[in-house]
Amino acid sequence: MKNKEQQGKGASSYLKLFCAQLDLLNFVAHALVFGIGLLIGITLTFFIKNFSFINFQIQQFSLPSYTLKPPPPPFSPISSNLSLSISNNNQTKNASHYPVGLVFDSGQKNTSSSPPKDNQTTPSSDSSIRVTNFTRIGLSEFLKPPMAMHDMTDEELLWRASMVPMIQKLPFKQTPKVAFMFLTKGPVLLAPLWERFFKGNEGLYSIYVHSHPSFNETVPESSVFHDRNIPSKEVRWGENSMIEAERRLLANALLDFSNQRFVLLSEACIPLFNFSTIYTYLMNSTSTFVEAYDQPGEVGRGRFKPKMRPQIRLSQWRKGSQWFQIDRFLSLQIVSDHLYFPVFMKYCKPNCYSDEHYLPTFVSIKFWKRNSNRTLTWVDWSRGGAHPSRYYRTDVTVEFLNKLRFGRTCEYNGHTTNICHLFARKFTTHALDRLLRFAPKLMQFN
Ligand SMILES: *[C@@H]1O[C@H](CO)[C@@H](O)[C@H](O)[C@H]1NC(C)=O
Ligand SMILES: *[C@@H]1O[C@H](CO)[C@@H](O)[C@H](O)[C@H]1NC(C)=O
Ligand SMILES: *[C@@H]1O[C@H](CO)[C@@H](O)[C@H](O)[C@H]1NC(C)=O
Ligand SMILES: *[C@@H]1O[C@H](CO)[C@@H](O)[C@H](O)[C@H]1NC(C)=O
Ligand SMILES: *[C@@H]1O[C@H](CO)[C@@H](O)[C@H](O)[C@H]1NC(C)=O
Ligand SMILES: *[C@@H]1O[C@H](CO)[C@@H](O)[C@H](O)[C@H]1NC(C)=O
Ligand SMILES: *[C@@H]1O[C@H](CO)[C@@H](O)[C@H](O)[C@H]1NC(C)=O
Ligand SMILES: *[C@@H]1O[C@H](CO)[C@@H](O)[C@H](O)[C@H]1NC(C)=O
Ligand SMILES: *[C@@H]1O[C@H](CO)[C@@H](O)[C@H](O)[C@H]1NC(C)=O
Ligand SMILES: *[C@@H]1O[C@H](CO)[C@@H](O)[C@H](O)[C@H]1NC(C)=O
């Protein structure tokens, strides 16, 4: 009985052993299947790289050390959908070769993508995440001048342009530039002459054009005026819209931190010297050039409006040409003026000619110390009337140009000089032929 029992026990233990072996076999079989699966997975990983969706998922579950690891929080709420986002991205191919960073797409770069994501808790559309290689987050993007064309309102533009760094010393190298700002009706009429003038001086100037908003002619890509139009509004001669356009030009030019001098030009202006002479004259000057004088009589003091008091008094009222050459400091003051300009907007209505009075008056009240009270743009009012003389084809001779170049004496940085004008107006397109013939040689263009 006992024996039977023992035998029975023995049999049952054999059975148990057998079962255990069976379990082991079973386990080995499972492990084998798993191993093969794993192998297939790894193989797939290497062979179907293009199909990075699968690629990523396999990597995520079986080869954690090999994969690109999405960093845990703060992005974790969205990381479960990361694979989709990555699969859309072309950079994945190389993603595992160098460090990967996650960047929130601000939504500004691509307006067609989903709305900007300020709400991190919403795990929605995956287009908000992009994988990029870690480029140094340096100053270069910040310092890069924006496109001339943008969609800021005037108010937004002026606010942005008015920003000034509190630290004066630059932590980078800067080549100062002159901003040439053209206030025109349509195209820059004398563009071929200006093209010759600018040639070979790239990096030392920037160009901004404010033309009538309806002007839609395209400028060839080879031109220095290509893509230099800023968002504009209609300008009426002698009215406040002219000052608004000047402020718009200044503000746009201020967005480029390397612009240090600012020159306002019309479509009828020409240069009187080569680029290097003009550049040095402007950069080296210790003064600004805003023409300002006190003129008795109807066309001077007569245009003052008593309602402008107390901000502006008659004794402070000045007149001058609108074509200025100024520095960055004064440009910043002009775009930020919220005291005097509103007074002009309100009370300087037609027959007041704010373009001839706003800047001369504003600069003379607050910044007269560094202002030369003269302009560098030559013009001839001697024939009288509301407009200065215009020059046509036959007016352009070497003698005439030299008279404009050296015909006067004035003060520059405390010394007397016979270079008092760097620009001249008003030249018509009829004069262009002869200007192109004489000017480059006479003025020693590059
Ligand atoms: C992943 O994104 C899809 C839409 O692309 C969405 O329907 C799904 O809920 C998301 N999954 C998670 C876990 O957020
Ligand atoms: C990936 O980028 C290359 C150029 O970098 C482009 O030619 C190709 O079409 C892109 N592929 C996809 C799927 O976006
Ligand atoms: C990917 O990396 C290889 C070398 O690792 C490089 O030659 C190739 O240009 C890179 N492709 C992209 C899109 O960055
Ligand atoms: C913006 O997105 C569209 C489609 O989503 C794409 O065709 C276009 O290339 C994107 N533009 C930029 C600058 O990423
Ligand atoms: C963020 O999401 C929460 C709920 O998910 C919502 O109550 C809140 O209004 C959202 N905030 C913004 C700024 O969208
Ligand atoms: C990283 O991206 C930048 C542009 O986003 C590119 O110029 C640079 O070559 C990339 N670096 C590598 C190693 O691909
Ligand atoms: C430019 O504007 C004129 C009207 O001012 C219009 O007739 C013409 O079609 C426009 N041209 C282009 C290229 O938009
Ligand atoms: C510019 O003109 C001056 C004379 O006015 C001359 O000395 C100088 O060499 C010229 N500059 C260039 C770059 O030709
Ligand atoms: C710039 O001005 C300084 C004095 O203010 C003078 O010493 C220097 O020669 C000038 N440089 C040029 C290129 O005119
Ligand atoms: C410019 O005019 C102001 C008066 O408006 C005067 O105080 C200043 O001395 C003048 N500057 C020069 C350089 O003549």
From TrEMBL:
<keyword id="KW-0808">Transferase</keyword>
<feature type="transmembrane region" description="Helical">
    <location>
        <begin position="24"/>
        <end position="48"/>
    </location>
</feature>
<protein>
    <recommendedName>
        <fullName>Glycosyl transferase, family 14</fullName>
    </recommendedName>
</protein>
<feature type="region of interest" description="Disordered">
    <location>
        <begin position="107"/>
        <end position="128"/>
    </location>
</feature>
<dbReference type="InterPro" id="IPR003406">
    <property type="entry name" value="Glyco_trans_14"/>
</dbReference>
<dbReference type="InterPro" id="IPR044174">
    <property type="entry name" value="BC10-like"/>
</dbReference>
<dbReference type="GO" id="GO:0016757">
    <property type="term" value="F:glycosyltransferase activity"/>
</dbReference>
<keyword id="KW-0812">Transmembrane</keyword>
<dbReference type="GO" id="GO:0016020">
    <property type="term" value="C:membrane"/>
</dbReference>
<dbReference type="Pfam" id="PF02485">
    <property type="entry name" value="Branch"/>
</dbReference>
<keyword id="KW-0472">Membrane</keyword>
<keyword id="KW-0328">Glycosyltransferase</keyword>
<keyword id="KW-1133">Transmembrane helix</keyword>
<keyword id="KW-0325">Glycoprotein</keyword>
